Every structure is written in structure tokens, then in C-alpha cells.
From TrEMBL:
<dbReference type="GO" id="GO:0044206">
    <property type="term" value="P:UMP salvage"/>
</dbReference>
<feature type="domain" description="Phosphoribosyltransferase">
    <location>
        <begin position="7"/>
        <end position="208"/>
    </location>
</feature>
<keyword id="KW-0547">Nucleotide-binding</keyword>
<keyword id="KW-0460">Magnesium</keyword>
<keyword id="KW-0342">GTP-binding</keyword>
<dbReference type="InterPro" id="IPR050054">
    <property type="entry name" value="UPRTase/APRTase"/>
</dbReference>
<dbReference type="GO" id="GO:0005525">
    <property type="term" value="F:GTP binding"/>
</dbReference>
<feature type="binding site">
    <location>
        <begin position="131"/>
        <end position="139"/>
    </location>
    <ligand>
        <name>5-phospho-alpha-D-ribose 1-diphosphate</name>
    </ligand>
</feature>
<keyword id="KW-0328">Glycosyltransferase</keyword>
<dbReference type="GO" id="GO:0000287">
    <property type="term" value="F:magnesium ion binding"/>
</dbReference>
<dbReference type="InterPro" id="IPR034332">
    <property type="entry name" value="Upp_B"/>
</dbReference>
<dbReference type="InterPro" id="IPR005765">
    <property type="entry name" value="UPRT"/>
</dbReference>
<feature type="binding site">
    <location>
        <begin position="199"/>
        <end position="201"/>
    </location>
    <ligand>
        <name>uracil</name>
    </ligand>
</feature>
<comment type="pathway">
    <text>Pyrimidine metabolism; UMP biosynthesis via salvage pathway; UMP from uracil: step 1/1.</text>
</comment>
<feature type="binding site">
    <location>
        <position position="79"/>
    </location>
    <ligand>
        <name>5-phospho-alpha-D-ribose 1-diphosphate</name>
    </ligand>
</feature>
<dbReference type="GO" id="GO:0005737">
    <property type="term" value="C:cytoplasm"/>
</dbReference>
<comment type="similarity">
    <text>Belongs to the UPRTase family.</text>
</comment>
Length: 209
């Protein structure tokens, strides 16, 4: 699959298996999602720009590279995206965070926007859009479309799980946006849930079932 990065590191896959189980508690689900997101950040940000600075080691002066965390924006699709942002901030604490509120109309499954707040100067920043589930792709397509209005330097999409329909939807609307995921599951069911999946990501993160 073009531009789909499957993060199949054993640490990620092990934690994903524990998280999928229906008897995993809210507390454990949240912790596992946080840990997986931290590990995924390593791969997602592998090409993040760096710049040299001059430092003093105990022995001499040298030039060494640092990243500018402030150039990275984690754009969270509410509400479940929060679960991924928290983990990613562990490794890039200086990143900016944007929010886009979209809910799925239960009948049409179409994304309806109710909130949009991004940092200024998006044109100078690299945006990582996050949502645990890339299912129908409606929310992801709408979120990326809105963010593109501000012409950021780059856009990536990160999810925990997706399925062939989600990938197809996002890539046909935005072929320039790479997808990073920990799994590509079998399919969508008739209610738009990924199967075998994890159920409703928001409910499992926030304990609202
Ligand atoms: N959103 C979820 O929370 N779960 C799915 O399986 C699909 C969309």
C-alpha cells in the first residue's frame, strides 16, 4: 500500500493486543494508548527537520543538531485524538497542539465540524493529524482539508488502527498525506466500526460506555 507506514515493532504490537481486549480497564487502555503513541512518535518523526547549535561538552566546543519542537503541531481530532497527543507530547514537549472537533452523524456517518483551533503560522509548521481510528475516513478527510487551507509545510496522519476503506478514502482525497498506523484491520462493519478493532476509541479512553 502506497504511503502507509505500518509500525509493526514488537513493543507496539504487544501493547496493541493488550489494549484491544474487551476486558482491558479504562485506566490500562489509556496507559497503553499513551505508551503506543510515544513509541509511534519515534517512527512518525524520523524525518523531522533539525538545525545545528553550538554546545560545550566537558572537553571542547562542538556543533550538534537539535529539533525545533515548536515547529511541530499535533492536530487532534476530538475527542479521541487526545489519547494520542498525550503520548506524543512526552517525546516532543515543545510541540504546539491544535484541535478540530468533528462528530460523525450517526445516520450518514458524515463528519460535521463544531470546533477548529490551530496555532498561528501553520504555513511554517509540520502538522501531524492524530485520531486513533481511521475508519470511514470522513473525519480524517475533512480535518486534512481544513488544515490545508493554512498551507502547512507538511501533513502526516497518525492512527492506531485503520482498514482498507479508511486508507482508500484518505488517500483518494489526499494522496500527499502519508498514513502511520499500528494495524490495518479487516473491514468496517455496517455501523462504521473497524473490525476486529477496539470498539469506540473515545468511550474506551474516557470510560463513557
Ligand atoms: N471510531 C471508533 O471509535 N471506533 C471504530 O471502530 C471506528 C470509528
Amino acid at each position: 500500500m502506497d504511503d502507509v507506514v505500518l509500525i509493526d515493532h514488537p513493543l507496539v504490537q504487544h501493547k496493541l493486543t493488550l489494549l484491544r481486549r474487551k476486558d482491558t480497564s479504562t485506566n490500562d487502555f489509556r496507559r497503553l494508548l499513551n505508551e503506543i503513541s510515544t513509541l509511534m512518535a519515534y517512527e512518525v518523526l524520523h524525518d523531522i527537520p533539525m538545525h545545528p547549535i553550538t554546545i560545550e561538552t566537558p572537553l571542547e566546543t562542538m556543533t550538534a543538531n537539535v529539533i525545533d519542537g515548536k515547529k511541530v503541531v499535533f492536530a487532534s481530532i476530538l475527542r479521541a485524538g487526545t489519547g494520542i497527543v498525550d503520548g506524543m507530547l512526552t517525546v516532543v514537549p515543545g510541540a504546539r497542539v491544535g484541535h478540530i472537533g468533528l462528530y460523525r452523524d450517526p445516520k450518514t456517518l458524515i463528519a460535521v465540524e463544531y470546533y477548529f483551533k490551530m496555532p498561528g503560522d501553520l504555513a511554517e509548521r509540520d502538522v501531524v493529524v492524530v485520531d486513533p481510528m481511521l475508519a470511514t475516513g470522513h473525519s480524517a478527510v475533512a480535518a486534512v482539508e481544513r488544515i490545508k487551507e493554512y498551507s502547512p509545510r507538511s501533513i502526516k496522519f497518525v492512527c492506531l488502527l485503520t482498514c482498507p476503506q479508511g486508507i482508500e478514502a484518505l488517500h483518494s482525497a489526499h494522496p500527499d498525506v502519508p498514513i502511520f498506523t499500528a494495524a490495518v484491520d479487516r473491514e468496517l462493519d455496517e455501523n462504521g466500526y473497524i473490525v476486529p478493532g477496539i470498539g469506540d476509541a473515545g468511550d474506551r479512553i474516557f470510560g463513557t460506555t
